[in-house]
Protein 1
Amino acid sequence: MLLTITTTRPPATDLGWLLHKHPDRTQSFDVTFGKVHVFYPEASDGRCTAALLLDVDPVGLARRDRAPELLAQYVNDRPYVASSFLSVAISQVFGSALGGSCKLKPDLAEEPLPLVARLAVVPCRRGAEAFLRRLFEPLGYAVTATRHPLDDHHPEWGESPYFTVELAARVRVAELLSHLYVLVPVLDDEKHYWVAHDEVEKLLRHGEGWLATHPEKEQITARYLKRQGKLVRSALAELVADDGTDPDDAAAANDLAEERLEARVSLHERRLNSVLAVLQESGAKRVLDLGCGEGKLLRLLAADPRFTEVVGLDVSVRSLEIAKQRLDRTRLFDGQRERIKLLHGALTYRDARLEGFDAAAVVEVIEHLDPPRLEAFAQALFGCARPGVVVLTTPNREYNVKFENLPAGKFRHADHRFEWTRGEFEAWASAVCSRYGYTAHLTPLGDTDPTVGGPSQMAVFRRH
Ligand code: SAH
C-alpha cells in the first residue's frame, strides 16, 4: 500500500520539515502489522513527493488472536489497499505532522499548501465512487478516481472494486493527514481492530474543525465506529455540541468526556505498569512472567536493562508465537534480545526451569485455572519455584456491577473459571502465605469506587 504526498510550493523540499522526515533519507519503522517505509521519490525546489509505503505482514495478521474474519485468511487484500492500517501508520510515523506541530518551522505548519495525495489502491465496493466524492469534495478536494480492471489482459472480466485516487487541494499538511486518517477507514469499512471508547476520542480529535460541519458526518461516524450504536450516538452528540447548537447534547458530551478521560489509558496498560513498577522497585534481576500471553509485559521488561534475564511461560503455543513476533519486532540494543526467553509449560505442574528466580509476575492468569487446580498452582509456584517476590493480579468481581454491558452474574471473559471478591482474594492470599512462608500486601488496581473497590486487584507476595 502506497500513499504519496506531493507539493509544488517552492521550496518544495520544505515538505521534509513538515513531515519531520528528511528528503535525502529512507527510513523504516516497525509497527504492529509489519513495517512502514518513508522515502522521497522526488525532491527538488519545484516539486517534492513524500512516499509512505506500508509493508503489511498478512501471515502475522492471520495469526493474531481474535483476528476478525477477514484477517483470518492468509490471502486477503489488506497488504495492498488503503485501510485503517494507513491511519495507524500516519499516526505513528507522521504523528507530529498529524498533530499540526513543526517546531522548527511553525509558520509553515499553519500555511495551506498546494498538496496532492495519491492513494495507489483504494477499495471502493458497492459502486462507492460517488461516496468517495461525497467524503472529500466538501472538504475542498478535487477528486480523481481511476478504476482498475480485474485483469489488464482480460477486459471481458470487467471492473475490479479498486481505484487509484488522487486528492488535490490547498490545505495544511495536518488537515490533509487528519482527513486521510479518518476517511480512509470510512471508505474501506473494514476496520482491523476492535472499536472501543478510545476510538471515539480519536475520531473527535482528528475530526476537530471539520467533521462537525461535514454533510456526511452521520455516515462517517457510523462507519468509523463500525456502527456500534452507543458509541456512534455519543460521538454525534459531541459533534453537535461542537457546533454549538444543542445544550442537552452538550451535557451528554460532558459525560462522554469524562468517560474518554478514563479510557485514555486502558485498564490493562495501567495494570501492567503497576506490575512493572513493583518489579522495578523490588530490585529483581531475573524475572518470570507466568501466563505471559502475547507478551505485553515481556516487552516492557525487555526494554529495561536492569532485568538481566526474563522468562515468559504460557500454555498456549499460539500466544507464545505472537509474543515471539512482538519481541522480534521490538527494537533492542545488540545482545539484549538474548535476555528474553519463552517457555511452553503449564503453571499447575512443578517445573525445574522456573526455580531460582528473583521475582514472578502472574497477571490476570489464575482466574483461567479451574478452582480445584489452584492448589497445584500454589504448590508449583510458592512451594517449588519459590521466587523472592510474586506479583499477582486478578479481576475484582465486586466491580462488575459497574460494567454496563456485563449482565449480572456473568464473568468478564468467557474463559474465566471464577472471579473473586476482594475478601475471597485476601482469604486465598493469606492461606498461601501461612502455608508457604510469604507475606502479602493487597492493593486495588484502576480507578477505585468507594463501595465496590477497583476494577482489578493486585497482591505482592514476599518470601520470608
Ligand atoms: N499475562 C498476560 C495474559 C493474560 S491472559 C497479560 O496480562 O496480558 C491469561 C494467559 O494465561 C493466557 O495466555 C493463557 O494461555 C495462560 N494460561 C492459562 N492457563 C494456564 C496454565 N495452566 N499454565 C500456563 N499458562 C496458562
Note: The domain at 2-193 is CATH 3.30.1610.20 (c-terminal autoproteolytic domain of nucleoporin nup98).
Protein 2
Amino acid sequence: MNVIFLGPPGAGKGTHAQLLMNELGIPQISTGDMLRQAMKAGTEMGLSAKRYIEAGELVPDEVVIGIVKDRLAADDCKNGYILDGFPRTVKQAEALDQFAQIDVALNIALADEVIISRLSGRRVCLKCGATYHTSTMQGEKCLNCGDPLVQRRDDAPETVKNRLAVYAVQTAPLIDYYAGKGLLKTVNCEPEATVQENYARVRETLGLK
Ligand code: AMP
C-alpha cells in the first residue's frame, strides 16, 4: 500500500505513520525528519532548509520533491510506503503523480485548539524521531534509544501559528486534490481518546483487517 498521511501539523501523522510502519513493515517517509537530519548533519541542503523550518515556512518545492523522489527509488519502498508530511503543496502532489502511484490519501482531522495544545507539549527524540507529550511521557529520555527529549524549535507558539496558517493556505487544498482523484479517506481523531484508540480508527478507515 502506498499511502499519504495528510493533516495539519500536530494531528498525529507521525505517530500513526510509525504504528502503521511497524504493523505493515513498510517505511515511513517523513520529509520533516529527513530535513531535520540534514540540518543536524550540517549538509548544504540542511543549512538552506533551516531558516524555512525555523520560521514555520515550507522548504522550496524543488528541494523536497528531489529528496522524496530519491527516497522512493530505494529498495525498501518496493512493497509500499507511508508518506508523512509530503506532499504539502499542489505542486508537490503534481510532481509526485509523475513518479509514484498512490493508493490512498488519509486525512487526519483534528480541531485547531487541540493542535495548538498538542504541539506546545510535544517533545521529540532527535535521534530516532519518536514523539512524546509532556502530559504522558515518563521521564526526559527516549524510551527507544535513551537520547534526551527536546522541544522542536518550530513548536514554539509563534511558529506554530505560522505553521497552521501555512497549512490552511498551501496544504489544505490537497484535500480537494485527492478527493477529486477518488483517493481521499478522512479519519476524525478524538482528542480525548488514547493513541491506540485513534490508531484503531486509522486502521479501520484504511480498511485493514
Ligand atoms: P514536519 O516535521 O512534517 O512538521 O515538518 C517540519 C518542517 O519541515 C515544516 O514546517 C517545513 O518547514 C519542512 N517540511 C517538511 N515537509 C515539507 C514539505 N513536504 N514541503 C515543504 N517543507 C516541508
Note: Residues 120 and 156 are 7 Å apart (CA to CA).
